[in-house]
UniProtKB/TrEMBL annotation:
Residues 30-92 form the HTH iclR-type domain. It comes from Tepidimonas taiwanensis. GO terms for molecular function: DNA binding; DNA-binding transcription factor activity. It comes from the Bacteria. This is Glycerol operon regulatory protein. Residues 1-11 have a biased composition (Basic and acidic residues). One of its GO terms (biological process) is negative regulation of DNA-templated transcription. Pfam families: HTH_IclR, IclR_C. The gene is gylR. Keywords: DNA-binding, Transcription, Transcription regulation. Residues 93-271 form the IclR-ED domain. Residues 1-28 are annotated as: Disordered.
Length: 274
């Protein structure tokens, strides 16, 4: 006869399910895949092929532990080893997956999904803009808690010389396209203006453009770039509001929120973290 304390334990269902453990079982992963994935992440961060010792260190493991993962990844094409240097880099399957991922991502759709929360976080109207046939075009506007009386709507062009959004494109878009668009705006000599060139250099350095009372008195704006996986400017997101309520400091809470959103979108589009 079994001891009584053995019989006091509740019997489990015999139908192969356990309601209490179902969520945990559904979310359980394969640890070895997650561990090996650190090697792929390390290569992506490095942006170049690495010797085994350096790659293992970057992934937080020993060379002896890393090597079997690399062999398996090599067999399926995620990683390949250079026959001359012996360095490990991303393989053809990893490159194919990356290209397919970039093709499937819509930067406008991703940015539009971020704008409602961004408007509340910065406390003013925000927008997203892309490069259109004749220059920067606003493709979405999300009004924030503070009204701003600016004639801005979907399809509105953004001046390359006088708006925060436009200056992001002037700083990061191809120079020939920028020069042509400036000429259409009647600003053909803008790129020969030393002050404007210095402003664009500062924007490239800070990845932030700032405009105070430039087009309309009492209205200011900040804008930040979003890049794709090829390092190209994909779009610009901006915050527009009363000058008294928009802190244009590069380290202000509003500027940091904008930059964080842009970085998150850039990473979603395949851009590197740096």
């Amino acid at each position: 006869m079994l001891p009584m304390h053995r019989l006091e334990r509740p019997l489990r269902p015999t139908n192969g399910t356990d309601d209490e453990e179902a969520p945990a079982r559904a979310s359980r992963g394969i640890q070895s895949v997650e561990v090996g994935g650190q090697l792929l992440k390390a290569l992506a961060r490095a942006g170049t092929a690495l010797p085994l010792k350096d790659l293992a260190r970057a992934a937080g493991m020993t060379p002896a532990k890393a090597h079997p993962y690399l062999v398996s990844f090599g067999k399926i094409g995620l990683i390949e080893q250079d026959p001359v240097s012996g360095h490990y880099g991303l393989g053809p399957l990893a490159l194919q997956l990356g290209l397919i991922g970039l093709q499937q991502v819509d930067p406008v759709r991703l940015s539009v999904a971020e704008l409602p929360a961004l408007a509340q976080a910065v406390g003013c109207t925000v927008s997203a803009a892309v490069w259109g046939p004749v220059g920067p075009i606003i493709v979405h506007v999300e009004h924030g808690p503070t009204p701003v009386h600016v004639a801005m709507r979907h399809g509105t062009p953004a001046s390359l010389r006088h708006t925060g959004t436009g200056k992001i494109f002037a700083a990061f878009a191809p120079a020939a396209a920028v020069a042509e668009a400036l000429a259409r705006e009647g600003e053909a000599d803008a790129l020969r203006d030393a002050a404007f060139r210095r402003e664009l250099e500062a924007i490239r350095h800070e990845r932030l453009s700032r405009v105070r009372d430039e087009l309309l008195p009492g209205i200011s704006a900040m804008a930040v770039p979003v890049f794709d996986g090829f390092g190209r400017l994909a779009l610009a997101i901006a915050a527009i509001g009363p000058s008294a309520l928009l802190d244009l400091g590069a380290d202000s809470a509003q500027a940091v929120t904008l930059k964080d959103t842009a970085q998150r979108l850039s990473q979603r589009l395949g851009a590197r973290g740096d």
